[in-house]
Design brief:
Blueprint: E1 4-10, H1 16-29, E2 34-38, H2 44-54, H3 63-87, E3 91-95, H4 98-108, H5 113-124, E4 131-136, H6 139-145, H7 160-173, E5 179-183, H8 188-205
Parallel strand pairs: 1-3, 1-4, 2-3, 4-5
Length: about 210
């Protein structure tokens, strides 16, 4: 049986990583084989690229360089982790994927969505999520949710105007039919219930559940 690919998206601090974990635990409890992964990263080469991308000392990185590095990490991740898992019939839950590049580099860095798509054509190799779950939390609220002791990475340290452009990008991109927008105004447990209500019927229809 062919597997399934679910991508979790949202602003830094939106709670998407927590929601990915909650859904993974729910699906695993139902006996399904789940692969949890993240971008940038997910495999050795991509994790090394992640370290460069998020290093606070690389604050002057050009937007084009950033976009290309994300695409390079994605190319490795797709071929070494995501595609093999899907071919083995597993459910892949990924913390960020292409939509993040479109929002962060396309909108945030001003490179434009179409240019970022072109940069990523080879990287994704036709492997796109079956479902994208967008956790809708505005940046000013998302940052309030972060642990106050957290050491912010290079992108999190960008000023609020950058994060507002990224968020505007997510809102525009989430109008696509294959993106599920989740209102995360409630508790993390309430948000989890909303995600289950939206995602599980799709998995049932696909014959996964």
């Amino acid at each position: 049986m062919k597997g399934f690919f679910i991508d979790f998206e949202g602003a830094d601090g939106s709670g998407k990583s927590t929601q990915l974990r909650f859904l993974a635990e729910h699906l695993e409890a139902r006996g399904l084989k789940v692969v949890r992964t993240r971008e940038p990263g997910g495999c050795p080469v991509a994790e090394k690229i992640r370290a460069v991308l998020l290093d606070r000392e690389n604050g002057g990185m050009a937007g084009a360089t950033e976009a290309l590095l994300y695409a390079a990490a994605r190319a490795e991740h797709v071929r070494k982790v995501i595609k093999p898992a899907i071919e083995e019939g597993k459910i892949v839950l990924c913390d960020r994927f292409l939509l993040s590049s479109l929002a962060y580099q396309g909108y945030g860095r001003g490179l434009g969505v179409e240019q970022v798509r072109r940069i990523n054509e080879l990287a994704v190799d036709g492997c796109l999520p079956d479902i994208t779950v967008f956790i809708n939390v505005a940046p000013e609220n998302a940052f309030q949710r972060m642990n106050e002791n957290k050491v912010h990475d290079r992108l999190e340290l960008e000023d609020i105007t950058f994060h507002e452009r990224v968020y505007a990008g997510f809102i525009e991109l989430s109008k696509s039919a294959d993106v599920m927008t989740i209102d995360a105004a409630g508790t993390k447990y309430e948000t989890h219930e909303i995600i289950k209500q939206k995602v599980l019927p799709v998995l049932q229809k696909a014959g996964i559940l």
